[in-house]
Amino acid sequence: METRPHSFIAPRLIIGLGIIILGVLFMLGNLDIIDPHDYIRFWPAILIVIGISYLVQSQNGSGRVWGIILTFAGAAMLLDRLYFINFNLWDYWPLILVFIGGMMIVKSTLIRRGIAAPPFTGSSDANDRINAIAVVGGSKRSNSSQNFKGGELTAIMGGLEIDLRDASIKEEAVIDITAIMGGIEMRVPDDWIVIIEGFPFLGGFEDGTRPPKESTKRLVIKGTAVMGGVEIKN
163 partner at 20 to 30 Å CA-CA among 24, 132, 203, 210? Predict the structure, then answer.
């Protein structure tokens, strides 16, 4: 069965190449061939390339927004190192929170007005989806629907533990995740294929599941992890 490509392949490839280039520069510096610091100061170019790759590859709005942020931040930092402008990234990092809050408000408004679809399809049975929020605290939730459709999970400086091991998917379910300085741990059945399309910024998405040999049940993870983590396992 054909599955969708992992959305992090290109950025990881770029970062890997950047690390190799960094190692080569330091090696040449140790051999007194070049001064590596003359080149290392241009590292923000890596952010620009990663941002562009997200803009090209992302299939969701949050990925494109983060692509724009990375491209802008990398370009501004590079111009600062070329002495065209005076830019300090840490003066502007709170704008990341503004972007995240704005995205959540816009998305919620569009869903309420019926302009955008919620992150699940099909039956409107509440048991077919899971919605949970943890703000400066923890919460444990489970779902055993045999026609699971997805839902929304939000953890802000808190933690969520989600148990879906007794649930089942007919074809595909989509869970939209927002983790800001918090963590989400999710357990899924052995016969689910996990597809991660979320965007990590100073955080991470980890797929610790055992891929089934044959299955048509797909769980798609979308959303954003900012200084937080999302772990999916069996």
Answer: 203
Task: Calculate ∠ Cα 44-46-51, nearest 5°.
Answer: 100
Pairing of strands 192-196, 199-201: unpaired
Burial of 194 (0-12, 13-18, 19+ CB in 10 A): buried
Give the Å distances, CA to CA, from 136 to 103, 147, 155, 158, 183. Answer: 21, 31, 8, 4, 11
CA 57/CA 75 separation, integer angstroms = 20
Phi, psi (deg, nearest 5) at residue 46 = -65, -40
User: CA of 73: how far to CAs of 53, 197, 201, in Å?
Assistant: 15, 22, 13
How far, in Å, CA of 144 to CA of 162, rounded?
11
Instruction: Report the distance separating Cα 103 and Cα 121, nearest Å.
Output: 21
Q: What are phi and psi of 177, to 5 degrees?
A: -115, 140
pLDDT tens-digit profile of 206-223?
899 988 888 889 999 988
Other CB atoms within a 10 A radius of the CB of residue 96 amount to 18
| SS3 label, residue 91 | helix
Q: Is-contact 52 75, C-beta < 8 A?
A: no
Most confident of 18-32, 84-98, 110-124: 18-32
Which residue has better confidence, 118 or 130?
130
Beta bridge partners of 220: 174, 195
Residues 46-102: tens digit of each pLDDT: 888 878 877 776 655 666 777 788 888 889 989 988 888 888 877 877 877 787 777
What residue spans define the domains of the chain?
9-92, 126-233
Enter the tokens of residue 92: 């502007």
